[in-house]
Design brief:
single chain, alpha/beta, Rossmann fold, Dihydrodipicolinate Reductase, domain 2, 2 domains, six-stranded mixed beta sheet, 9 helices, binds 3-amino-D-alanine, NADP binding, aspartate-semialdehyde dehydrogenase activity, diaminopimelate biosynthesis
Length: 330
């Protein structure tokens, strides 16, 4: 049993981490919740008990924490995650601060749990839209990934509470505060900041993280990331080209038995993955599998997952459990 800490415990992901730790029956001996000094003294819930938020400071290394889940943004992670890891705490970081560092594993347990070494103390959680996409692609690796193109339809909860509030504001006819344009009755082909080449940082994350997770640094990957007026659960249209010839049936068969995947692909009964069905679950729902008529050995795959759970909190809890098992069995 472990003393477990959630850093950033007042945010959407931090609160979900507390909920998922309880739901997954994570071996928690003691729970601590940290946030900025502004939130100190506030109360969050763990297994129906009140937990008082503590102000984060460098003294956290003296608190005897065995497992720390970070969901407080890159700046906080950069400052505190290495300190805790150096003190022996197992840290799973949900920010993008360490994801592309060569010596830091970037892990989705269903895909690359072998990337966790027995002595790793700092592990990065990938971006939400990357997580669900690689869970859908991993079972198809035997066909040889040759090229991937993503188009995302990302829920406003990916921007935290302020995204959800902008959607609500728009529905009341009020101006947006978080986004540069209304998200109600609109879509924004803009997630995170624009980079000099015209891609957004969110698109670049999907490209870089996919290559790192599959250990295919040269894999041709591209992405267009779009914010849609959906409260929760991201959808991704994946267009994938394989090295080998395959079929819709073979792809369906591989996905049907894959861990963490639920195949929902029966268009004769209007059955396909949708955000409303994915929300509140930890699975990645996959469907609309069909041959791309414009390119050989190429297929369209539609996948949907709860971005706050599998895309963030649940994946972090699963990574922590996997890392603890790796170090116990080493
Ligand atoms: C988003 N990917 O949906 C982000 C959250 N990490 O905005």
């Amino acid at each position: 049993m472990y003393h477990v800490a959630v850093i950033g415990a007042t945010g959407a992901v931090g609160q979900k981490m507390l909920q998922v730790l309880a739901e997954h029956d994570f071996p928690v001996r003691q729970i601590s919740a940290y946030a900025s000094a502004r939130s100190a003294g506030k109360i969050v819930q763990f297994k129906g008990q009140d937990v008082t938020i503590q102000a984060l400071s460098e003294n956290i290394t003296k608190d005897g924490i065995g497992v720390a889940l970070f969901a407080a943004g890159g700046t906080i992670s950069e400052q505190y995650a290495p300190l805790l890891a150096a003190a022996g705490t197992l840290v799973v970081d949900n920010s993008s601060a360490f994801r592309m560092q060569a010596d830091i594993p970037l892990v989705v347990p269903e895909v690359n749990s072998q990337a966790i070494g027995p002595n790793d103390r700092l592990i990065a959680n990938p971006n939400c839209s990357t997580i669900q996409s690689v869970v859908a692609l991993a079972p198809l690796q035997p066909f040889g990934l040759k090229r991937v193109n993503y188009t995302t339809y990302q829920a406003v909860s990916g921007s935290g509470q302020k995204g959800i509030e902008d959607l609500a504001r728009g529905s009341r006819g009020e101006e947006p505060v978080n986004y540069p344009h209304p998200i109600h009755d609109n879509i924004l082909p803009h997630i995170d900041v624009f980079l000099p080449d015209g891609y957004t940082k969110e698109e670049q994350k999907m490209i870089d993280e996919t290559r790192k997770i599959f250990r295919l640094p040269e894999l041709p990957v591209s992405a267009t990331c779009v914010r849609v007026p959906v409260t929760n659960s991201h959808s991704v249209a994946i267009n994938v080209t394989f090295e080998q010839e395959t079929s819709v049936e073979a792809i369906r068969a591989a996905l049907a038995e894959a861990p963490g995947v639920v195949l929902v692909d029966d268009v004769s009964h209007n059955q396909y993955p949708m955000p409303l069905d994915a929300s509140g679950t930890d699975d990645v729902y996959v469907g609309r599998i069909r041959q791309d008529q414009s390119l050989a050995n190429t297929f369209h795959i539609w996948c949907v997952a709860d971005n706050i759970r599998k895309g963030a909190a649940s994946n972090a809890v699963q990574v922590a459990r996997q890392a603890l098992e790796s170090s116990i069995h080493s």
